[in-house]
Structures are given as C-alpha cells and as structure tokens.
Amino acid sequence: MEKLSVRDRKHLWHPLTQHKTHGDMLGIVKAQGAVLTDEDGREYIDAIASWYTAMYGHCHPWITKAVSEQMKKLDQVVFSGFTHQPAIELSESLMSVLPYNQQKLFFSDNGSTATEIGIKMALQYFHNLGEKRNVMLASEEGFHGDTFGAMSVSGLSAYNGPFEE
Ligand SMILES: Cc1ncc(COP(=O)(O)O)c(C=O)c1O
Q: What are phi and psi of 33, to 5 degrees?
C-alpha cells in the first residue's frame, strides 16, 4: 500500500494551502495528549492543539468516553422543532459563566459560520425593526474565517484577496 502522503496527493486539496509549492502532507495515524504520530512512527508535539480544536489533548479519555456514550444513545436530531438534554445542559452551564446580560445561545459548528450567524443576527435585528442598516464595522487586519460573510468583515490577505470584489 502506498504511503498516506502519496495517496493524499491524488484527490485531496487542503485548506490554506498552495499545492504547487507545498510539499507532501504529514500522514498522521495516531494522536494522544499533545503528541501526534506519523505513518513512519515519528512523533510530533501538536503545539497548536490542531488549530485549537483539541485543547484538552488528543483522544482525551473523558471526552472519547462521553462522545462514544452519547453516540450510542442519541447521535443527532435536527435542532429545528426538537431539543435534547445535552444542548440544554450545555446552555445552562454556559449561562453560569457568561456575563449577566447574555441570556440566549445559538449553537454553530465552527468559527466561520459563527461569524456568519453574528452578521445575520445583527442585520435581521434591524430588519425586524423595519430599519435599513447594511454597514458592518470591522478591524482592518482582522481574521474571522473563510466563508463569504466572514471574509467580508476580515482584513485583506493572500487567502481572501481573490474574493475582494
Ligand atoms: C478570530 C477567528 N475567527 C474565526 C475563525 C474561523 O474559524 P473556523 O476555522 O472554525 O471556521 C478563526 C480561525 O482561525 C479565528 O481565529
């Protein structure tokens, strides 16, 4: 069997990557705590927690157990018209640490769509009031993600330059 780094090249594009100049991707086969292991058995310290998505460490036993138990009980239910205990419990525990003027939560699945939702909420708020508002203030060098709404309130960079107009 060919190496992962070789098979990868055939069909995959990676985010934030110029494939003409980028070398082979590291084929990772295992992760534990802060350590990633590649297909040749070499170990790496994941010092950015895989873009801060594994901030408690990879394959944390408490998290993998909780996810596995939840998946066996209720994997997914559409959140429009339905609700469930984990969402309610998470909302209650977030409320206990959020400032007193925060009373409502709307869950998203990543940073870019969270930004989209924030923009939509701001626009819809004024739409519902019957006011026309369509100007967003944004920091010049800010980065808010790769979807169009998020790019539109981010600073210009190599990543979003082609979409400026
Ligand atoms: C400040 C900020 N907002 C939004 C995002 C986009 O998040 P995601 O990659 O989950 O879409 C990032 C990602 O780096 C970020 O740093």
A: 60, -125
Q: Are 28 and 36 a contacting pair, CB within 8 Å?
A: yes
**Residue 47: per-residue pLDDT:** 97
Residue nearest to atom 8 of ligand 1 (CA): 111
Note the pLDDT of residue 5: 93
Q: Is 118 in the pocket of ligand 1 (CB under 6 A)?
A: no
Which of the four pLDDT bands, split at 50, 70 and 90, describes residue 164? Answer: confident
In the chain, the domains with their CATH numbers are 4-60 (3.90.1150.10), 85-163 (no CATH)
C-alpha of residue 106 to centroid of ligand 1, in Å: 17
- pLDDT per position as a tens digit, 29-62: 999 999 999 999 999 999 999 998 999 999 999 9
34 with 47: CB under 8 angstroms? yes
State the closest ligand 1 atom to the C-alpha of 51, by its place in the atom list counted from 1: 14
- Ligand 1 in reach of 57 Cβ (< 6 A): no
Rounded to the nearest 5 percent, the helix, strand and coil shares of the chain are 40, 10, 55
Q: Find out whether the beta carbon of 159 lies less than 6 Å from any atom of ligand 1.
A: no
The CB of 149 under 6 Å from ligand 1? The reply is no
